[in-house]
Design goal:
With 322 residues, this protein is of the alpha/beta class. Helices cover 45% and strands 15% of the residues.
Length: 322
Amino acid sequence: MTPHTRIESHLPTFAEVEAAAKRIEPYTHRTPVLTCHSLNGITGAQLFFKCENFQKIGAFKFRGACNAIFSLSDEEAKPGVAAHSSGNHAAAVTLAARLRGIDAYIVMPRTASELKKRAVAGYGAKITFCEPTQRSRETTCAQIVKQTGAKEIHSYNDPRIIAGQGTAALELLQEVSDLETILAPVGGGGLLSGTALSASAMNEQIEVIGVEPEGADDAFRSFHSGAIVPSINPKTIADGLLTSLGDLTFTIIRRYVHDIVTVSESTIIKAMRMVWERMNIIIEPSSAVPVAALLDKLVDVKGKKVGVILSGGNVDLDRLPW
């Protein structure tokens, strides 16, 4: 399966986000929305952080995986599910499959972090390691699907995944309905497209801004050129944001997202450390990307109420960037 393969031939709707929220409610955490007086002072805005670092498996990915897997009929689910991922999606699919009582076949590059390998194994995945290339991941996963009959769960370009990820913004706006801007990181676009879908339906006045590392700026270039620009040799500490947009996520982003901006590696690290120190919570580099945009004043937020999706908190403590 290529990164642009469409799993189903429709764009998800906000009604599907609402249905996803009900479907996954018994299994997911309703994560807290936190504020920080210190960061408000630095940015000149009222910031509201949706803390998906406190979600099960430590990242928002569990929402989409849970929705996709619990959307399957019993007949579809019986052979199990399959996915290729270097980290959070693998853990999310495996835990959701365990809750559903089915097998999870996970393909991971052999170079994935030991932390993430241990986490995925701990959730009970049947892991196959492959070479660290997109082609190797896809062909290995396709072979497993053929052998087992498992349903492949794509990490972002699937309407069930997008709808599930949109539940984070849905919850945020249920708590803080008068936000003027929402910032979210963007890699493959599942979180950003789901966020935009919810925001546009709940309050069409909200500006939705995607943020991406300068060293992996394919979504930025895609958004501003009007055509998908593949990610080629991305280099960033934010390893959750390395993938290219899919056709579903790109279509939603073009329709509902107001802008995508990019941030430097040094500011990502600065933002990550600042959240650790000022808010006393652990976030991973990908989570720090939208905070970095605020520190660099790339988005006009002065005097505004701003939502920030903190996408996850899975960090290898033996490899901190400072």
